[in-house]
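Support request, priority: normal
Reporter: lab tech (M.K.)
Component: structure prediction queue

Hi team, I submitted a job for Cytochrome P450 from Corynespora cassiicola Philippines yesterday, and the status page still shows it as pending. I've pasted the exact input below so you can check whether something in the sequence is tripping the parser. The sequence length should be 469 residues. Please let me know if I need to resubmit or if it's stuck on your end.
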Amino acid sequence: MYAAACSGIPEAVRQKQQLENDGANKRSRFTCKFGNTTWVFLNSSRTVNDLLERRAALYSSRPKFPMTQDIMSGGSRIVLMPYDSKWKLQRKIMHRVLTARQDDVFMPFQDLESKHLCWDYLEKPDRWWSANGRYANSVIMSVVFGCRSVLDDPDVVELFETLELFLENQQPGVNIVDGFPILSKLPKRLQWWRPRGERIFEKTINVYKRNLAKCEERIRKGTQRQCFVTDFLESEEVKSMSETEKLFTLGSLMEAGSDTSRVTIGQIIAGAVTYPDWVARAREHLDAVCGYNAERLPQWSDKSKLKYINGVVKEGFRWRPNIAEIGAPHMLIKDDEYEGYRFPAGTVFTWNAWAIALDSNEYKEPERFWPERFLNGEEENALKGHWAFGPGRRVCAGWKVGEMNVWIAIARLLYCFDFTKVPGQPIDTMTIPQITKHTAPFAVKVTPRSPAHAELVCRDCEEAVNTVY
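Reply from support: The job had stalled in the queue. We restarted it manually and it finished. Here are the results:
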């Protein structure tokens, strides 16, 4: 009361402000109890920033996942590892390849593979979704294993199958033991979920083994290109890793470089079909730089002149959170206090990705695909303004690769192709499935913008299709 009087704020007004603040705080997060574990869901960028970014030293571990991590991943999938020495070793290895100089390592492959992508869109427009997967996978395979991927490559198809199995099982409520880890103390013969998890583990690790075996065979024959694996197999780090850890390190690299790029390109295409006004503006910028009559493809050197495309890419990451409804859980490692609430060590925090992305307090007209929202002087900061790559110390190590994958692909696709609705098959952007079992998540008609653009793709992209290594 005394503080309110001294500040000149009437008590009734102070109480009203306090109630409003309490309401805002409750809206910005809510708490659930799963067994003995408390989960806190963060519903605003403010709370994600405050806790998972600024207090990352406390909020960077992971809870136990007896099914998806211990059984399905042999305890070796980096995205679900606790913040310990094993995680730091894998993270160090992944950083070495994923944060290398982009222009030296990734950009030549992204240039080549995005040309192949344009060719696939021209020649096989109904296979656009598979082409997205081949493109994203081939970039990372070129860097990690020194080989390219082809459309409908059985190994690529099976890689996406195993990744989708993981994503399916990671969703909240799918596996009761992940929500109630105490059940893992049951005798193995009573763990009814275990046989299914072990089958998924065998399928997953066999995909990784086949890719490594092919690389090792090329090394024996002397035909292997220099790549990450050739250095990795000779490194000191690999000597301290189990076979499962080694394979999941390589598998995590393949997955990190494949799915987010594939899905985000698809989301931007859905945005082009449902909100075509921004496409016309994007093309004004592309045509001004690359020619109004299909003179040449967009190049890396154009990036500083195509800030609108930077906005398109960032909006693609924000618009419809593309992997899961919530972010990967972060576990608190020490007791902490925030805005009057005390949280004990072991509390699990995550962010409500859809609630944040579609909150009008966060974004103007949040349901709309509107790249202009990111033309604010921070177009070059790919992590700013969305949570697609996660926060804090657990931010995706491959975020830069993913952003560059999407940028060059979308710049070239928007310059060369039109994307329109298929009659009778509208796109409900709120329910686009992310787990698709090889089929496109929505229908779209893909056509060249003009005969000149079709000729440009034929002229500039055929060599990329015929390049073999």
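Confidence is low (pLDDT under 50) at residues 1-23. Residues 94 and 397 are 7 Å apart (CA to CA). Let us know if anything else looks off. Ticket resolved.
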